[in-house]
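Exercise 7b. Backbone tokens:
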């Protein structure tokens, strides 16, 4: 499912009140998007608070804090794909977008037969 939120957008968690900026978005074929929120302010007792992965539905959207251009997905969910480097093949089941973490779109490919899924840069 495609996320309605944008990279670089400020959001607030409706449950905890955490406020931060979206630094990564994960979209999945069979479940709602999850969003990585990086807190804007450091807590008083720690040097750096870690990022938080949250369901998109928990987040109240705010203003764009950082303009990040998101490359469009080129492979639709469910399409059979093959990594030309490793030879791994399967079905495109997820996409990951990020600003500084993942400069290019990453894809998660689930094999057609039993086995572990693999993450690779394929413009998914």
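Sequence design result:
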């Amino acid at each position: 499912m495609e996320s309605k939120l944008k990279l670089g957008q400020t959001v607030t968690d409706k449950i905890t009140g955490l406020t931060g900026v979206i630094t990564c978005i994960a979209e999945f074929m069979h479940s709602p998007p999850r969003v990585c929120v990086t807190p804007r302010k450091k807590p008083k007792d720690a040097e750096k608070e870690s990022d938080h992965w949250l369901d998109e539905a928990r987040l109240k959207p705010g203003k764009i804090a950082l303009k990040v251009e998101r490359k469009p997905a080129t492979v639709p969910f469910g399409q059979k794909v093959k990594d030309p480097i490793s030879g791994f093949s399967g079905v495109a089941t997820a996409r990951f977008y990020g600003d500084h973490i993942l400069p290019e779109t990453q894809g998660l490919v689930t094999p057609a037969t039993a086995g572990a899924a693999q993450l690779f840069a394929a413009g998914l």
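Instructor comment: Strands lie at 9-13, 19-28, 34-39, 52-55, 59-64, 80-82, 89-98, 106-110, 118-120. The mean pLDDT is 78.
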